Amino acid sequence: MTDAAAAEGADDPIYSYKPSLFGAPWQFRLRPDALEWQAGRHQGRAPYGRILRVRLSYRPSTMQTRRFLTEIWPAGGPKLPIASASWRSMVEQENLEAAYGGFILELHRRIAAAGTDAVFQAGSPVLLYWPGLAIVAAASLAIAALALRALSLGEWAAAAIMAGFLALFAWQGVTFFHRNWPERYQPGALPERLVPGG
Fold it and tell me: Of 198, 190, 172, which is closest to residue 57 (Cα–Cα)?
C-alpha cells in the first residue's frame, strides 16, 4: 500500500476479532463505498449497495454469556459474521461490545446511505425461534414438575437443587428469547437489545 493510500484510509473505521482460538482473526474496514474484510489469506469487498441482508442476534457462548452477532450477506460473496467477543486464550474471551456497537451503527448508516434494498432482520429466524421456545417451555415445566414431586416425597435437597437449576435455566432462557425476538427493523432504528454500546 502506498503512503497516499494509507493516508486516505486512515480514518476508515476498523473492527477485528478472533472467532476461534486457533483460527485466523477477522478484520473489517468501512471504506467510503464498501465493507472490506480479511480472514487469514481470504479477503474481499462488499459494496454497501450490494448487501442483500443483515441479521442482528444474541449468541451467548460458554466463555462469553453476553455475545452479539451481526451476519451480512453480500451479493456474490460469502456470509460475513461480526461478533462482539474475541478469543484471547484457552480460558478467556475478550468483550468488545463498545467497539462492536459503534462499528455496527456506522455500518448501518453507510448501508442506508447507499440506497440498498437490503433486508434487515433481528433475532432468530422464525422457523427456529418458536420451536426453540416451545422446547424450553416444556423443559421448564418438566423440571418444575420434578421439583414438586421431590417436595411431595420430602426430598428437600433434591427439590432445592432442581429449583435452583430451574431458576438459572429460566433466567437464561428468558434473556435469550427476549433478545432474539424475530422482527424486521430499519437501518436508522437498530434494536437496542442487540446493539450494545451504540
Answer: 190
Instruction: State in words which class domain 3-123+183-194 has.
Output: mainly beta
- In sequence order, which residues have a C-beta less than 8 Å from that of residue 15 and are 6 or more positions away? 27, 28, 82, 96, 99, 100, 103
Parse the chain into domains and list their residue ranges. 3-123+183-194, 126-176
What does each C-alpha distance from 21 to 28, 48, 92, 99 come to in angstroms? Answer: 19, 30, 10, 20
Measured torsion, CA atoms of residues 138, 143, 145, 149, in degrees rounded to the nearest 10: 160
d(CA 120, CA 118): 6
Does residue 56 have a pLDDT over 60?
A: yes
The predicted pLDDT at position 10 comes to 61
Cell of 6: 494509507
DSSP string, 107-157: HHHHHHHTT---EEEESS-HHHHHHHHHHHHHHHHHHHHHHHHHHHTT-HH
**Of 104, 108, 114, residue with least CA distance to 33:** 114
